[in-house]
Amino acid sequence: MTGVLITGGTGKTGSVLAELLRGSGVPVRVASRVPQADAPDAVRFDWSDPATHPAALHGMDRVYLVPPVDTTDPMPLVEPFLVEAERLGVRRVVLLGSAIVLPGAAGALELAARVRARPGWVVLRPSGFMQNFLAPHPLGERIRRRGEIRTAAGSGRVGWIDARDIAAVAAVLLTEPDGHQDDRRDYLLTGPKALNYQEAAQTITLRTGRPIRVVPVEVAEQADAYRASGMPDAFATALAAVDAGIRTGRDDQVSTAVLDLTGRPPRTFAEFVQDHALHWTDPRGTR
């Protein structure tokens, strides 16, 4: 093993993964559009600039792949990167996919299929991130500022997962010795229990003492709120439509993959809230 390239290296999962791998003595290269000047393992990387891809990949035999955000079709940007990764002989790619499929986002499914088709490459399909309840995500921002969750999901449940558990799974899969990898190429990742927004709000209220209310809205109103937060129109529409799927029970699922791969159970939502309680109670938005 020569090293792991972490795209989205300063994001929710990538930053934690980098710490885990460094702590295990694994060489890493942290890729981001604006790399830290004082970080020796940082490299400039931009999905929209293929000229940055070869330097980021050079000398790395494994990749943690976080696709471009705020788009329903990542393939035009990611395809040149995958071609270059194959040309350079990257042996393992761990793709951060999603168990929650955006309507009209065939490109995301195509990307996952593209990765699964390559021997040694795998797809992670985490459920909704618990970190969405924190700012700057629009859901978390509204909770922090107004003490409310606006949703069109009704009483539908999601197997919310902590991003730290996703990173822990990725670390295991990226450090497995060659020859010890099984043939499985797809992992559904969830927390230990599926919760609806009402149950999540109750947990935040009980753990922080700050009342959080749930406000039912229609899908169109949810989309307008996402657009107002700065999301591109098509992505805002697709993300709002996810609530309709949650309402039907489509995302009410729980897996044991985190425990199976890491040897410890995933964090509960209550544990997540306890770790981030100040985020919702400190007027400065401390995280």
List the helices and strands and how they pair.
Elements: E1 4-6, H1 14-23, E2 28-32, E3 42-44, H2 53-57, E4 62-65, H3 75-87, E5 92-96, H4 106-116, E6 122-126, H5 138-146, E7 148-151, H6 163-175, E8 186-189, H7 197-208, E9 213-216, H8 219-228, H9 233-247, H10 257-262, H11 269-275, H12 277-281
Parallel strand pairs: 1-2, 1-4, 2-3, 4-5, 5-6, 6-8, 7-9
Helix pairs in contact: 1-6, 7-11, 8-9
InterPro entries: Ergot_Alk_Oxidoreductase (IPR051604), NAD(P)-bd_dom_sf (IPR036291)
Protein name: NAD(P)H-binding protein
What can be said about this structure in brief?
The protein has helices at 14-23, 53-57, 75-87, 106-116, 138-146, 163-175, 197-208, 219-228, 233-247, 257-262, 269-275, 277-281; strands at residues 4-6, 28-32, 42-44, 62-65, 92-96, 122-126, 148-151, 186-189, 213-216. The protein is an alpha/beta fold and 287 residues long.
